Give the backbone structure.
Amino acid sequence: MEKKIHAQPPKTLTGIQLTEIPTSAVGVKAITSAMSHIKKEVGLVKGIVLLKNINQKDGFDCPGCAWPDPDAKRAFLAEYCENGAKAVAEEATKNRVSPLFFATHSVQELSLLSDYEIGKSGRITHPMYLPEGKDHYEEISWDAAFSIIGKELNQLASPDEAIFYTSGRTSNEAAFLYQLFVREFGTNNLPDCSNMCHESSGVALSETLGIGKGSITLDDFNHADLVIVMGQNPGTNHPRMLTALSEMKKKGGKIITVNPLPEVGLLNYKDPQNPLKWVGKGQDLTDLFLQVKINGDVALLKIILKLMKSKEKENPNSVFNHQFIEEKTAGIDAFLEDLDSYSIEELLPQTGLTLASIEKATALIINNENIIVCWAMGLTQHKNSVDNIREIVNLLLLKGSIGKKGAGTCPVRGHSNVQGDRTMGIWEKPKAVFLDRLEEEFSFKAPRKHGYDVVSAIEAMKEKKAKVFIGMGGNFISATPDTQFTAKAMQQCSLSVQISTKLNRSHLIHGKRALILPCLGRSEKDIQSSGEQFISVENSMGVVHQSKGHLIPHSNQLLSEPAIVAGLAKATLQNTTTDWSGMAANYDLIREKIEATIPGFQKYNQRVRIPGGFTLPNNARENDFTPTASGKANFSSNKPSKITLKNHQFLMMTIRTHDQYNTTIYGLNDRYRGVLNERRIIFMNHEDMKQHGLQKLDKVNLTSHFNGEQRHALGFMVVPYNIPRQCTATYFPETNVLVPIKSKADISNTPTSKTVIISIQKETVNL
Ligand SMILES: Nc1nc2c(c(=O)[nH]1)N[C@H]1C(S)=C(S)[C@@H](COP(=O)(O)OP(=O)(O)OC[C@H]3O[C@@H](n4cnc5c(=O)[nH]c(N)nc54)[C@H](O)[C@@H]3O)O[C@H]1N2
Ligand SMILES: Nc1nc2c(c(=O)[nH]1)N[C@H]1C(S)=C(S)[C@@H](COP(=O)(O)OP(=O)(O)OC[C@H]3O[C@@H](n4cnc5c(=O)[nH]c(N)nc54)[C@H](O)[C@@H]3O)O[C@H]1N2
Ligand SMILES: [Mo]
């Protein structure tokens, strides 16, 4: 009988509870929630030691998000947030996935569990091997594991038949070694989580401003007059950003929020560091909330730009910064001409907003000098995502609001070192100068052909063009789109290897043979033969700093990520002259090589030891746009979305709850949205529910529609919510099955996880 391995099992519905939506974020609830996770997962005593060291200058970098740490004072026991505390609790959990665990549970049995249950199984303690045709993972030695991988890689017809994925927690040191190993092996197949995350930002910003990263520093919030937060939910995903917003508001700054949902965190805030403020009303953050329709942002920005243009015409020099435009930019005429080809009447319905509210936003933009625009996944995961970000750049350029204090671009990164990994060369499209430098430093011939990104890697596996998958962290199966398709693709591989801390679904949906290589987490001590090591990371604003764990590792079998890469390299590369063992024994030697190959890392070993670290060069911050093709900051012409929904269809965005870190599910509550004990829900507009005969908590199935294809996700419950008409929201990763593999952003190839066209059927309908 054929065994059925489940890519995303529809679980029976639990005891869902809908509560009132809180009026304010953080505050005392955040502290009690954090402490209860810590107590349950780690125990209180060890938990306090752990919390004490998060984001301190001699401690470890919070694995939660990439938001920067303050330069000066760092509160004892306090430079973390509720969700950072949950992230470290997950890593430091008492639960262990040992060889006995695997002997007791078959892979098929584990695949029936939800992501929540899988994650709660705990930290993996030993290297494990699943031989072909077997039901249970078996313990294996590190040497034997490396040797299986080395042999398999060397048997491939071409190095391009292997895929080397990276998630964004990997340190600079491990990432640098990993890409070096992969390139010495002979391929640029280095897809990463960025391909699903801020790739659209990177593409748009490189083209327009000459650097794929944001331009601001944390201190710029102290000098900003206006911050626009678009498509981002910092209350949950970057809670420490609320502190920066709160401070700028106290100095008289204004905030515009653009989001289909009134996210509680952005509306009102209670400072967790200040117990006096835990009772009472909290601080209002947002001055103007624009409840845009899903993917209506380009249309909204275009209307704003048009209004700015007519104001400037009416009253010259009152809106545009002509000196900046003249000296620093290119392409304004073509941009303004293109803008004229759109009418406000045609754009307005796509936004779902009133013209009056957009006029208010425009007035705030016109009347304020120093503007920062922040954004995250609400802008980057649509078909026209690159347009979204280029349109933001147009707005900032007209105002000259970039390359000066208190102004600029702020793509808020996700994983704590996702930006650093790119700086280290984790990229499927490396620049020639970077490869030249690698060749010089390490005496090998680097591959020049660009490699697969996430989506093309999945397609290559499906077409059997790629046969070995190696994942440096992450949870490829659950994080990628089109779960069933991706599962089939992975199952065709001859070997899949996951370098992981915790059990996840990518260990259970695997190639013909599979390996799990367990590694140290951020919070753990890393001792190598030359002594205790630290690693380094780059935050969302280009600050590179060290991170050092203090806890005793979960098992004496765990290796560090650099040691694992060195093991892979030694077992695979026959003619390498690189000193893999030396570098794995002493990370200073890795940093010396980084310094020799990547600009901006002069005196790396010295500067990374300075508490707080150092800042990488950033041309846009310095008001220098010479790295672009035109040598200037480029205006661009962008397209609004062109989606036509049929009467019974809806747009669906897949978002995070307050109780998860991507595919790691901390708990079943979404406190800020008033949903407890359930994840398989769909948020709908009340009027839409009425029109379609749906009641609160009705059970429904979801079908997505793309190019005549249908995909199904079964067993959801309807939750009425304040969301624009024909817009819905569900949670990632439960609805990744609905995101079509071929539905991706133009240019950046990012899966369109925030625009999925769906229809909704009451559960009685048989599929
Ligand atoms: N606790 C916690 N922290 C995290 C993560 C986590 O899972 N948990 N994940 C990390 C990672 S990798 C990332 S990338 C970030 C993600 O951080 P976010 O981008 O904040 O995460 P999402 O939940 O995807 O939220 C997207 C937001 O965009 C809005 N949105 C959706 N579509 C649109 C649209 O078309 N237009 C506009 N204007 N808004 C839209 C949604 O309503 C939602 O508020 O967070 C990082 N930090
Ligand atoms: N539908 C939909 N899909 C999405 C998104 C969305 O908004 N909607 N968001 C996308 C985004 S923004 C991102 S960034 C991706 C995330 O994609 P990934 O980065 O692939 O996924 P994560 O869930 O963050 O990975 C969690 C796993 O990482 C491993 N891990 C944790 N810490 C470490 C460590 O220190 N070292 C190693 N080696 N492993 C570790 C653990 O085993 C854990 O199970 O998902 C994307 N997918
Ligand atoms: Mo992300």
Q: What stands out?
A: Residues 230 and 375 are 5 Å apart (CA to CA). The pocket of molybdenum atom (ligand 3) is lined by residues 193, 197, 414-415 (CB under 6 Å). The longest strand covers residues 709-720.
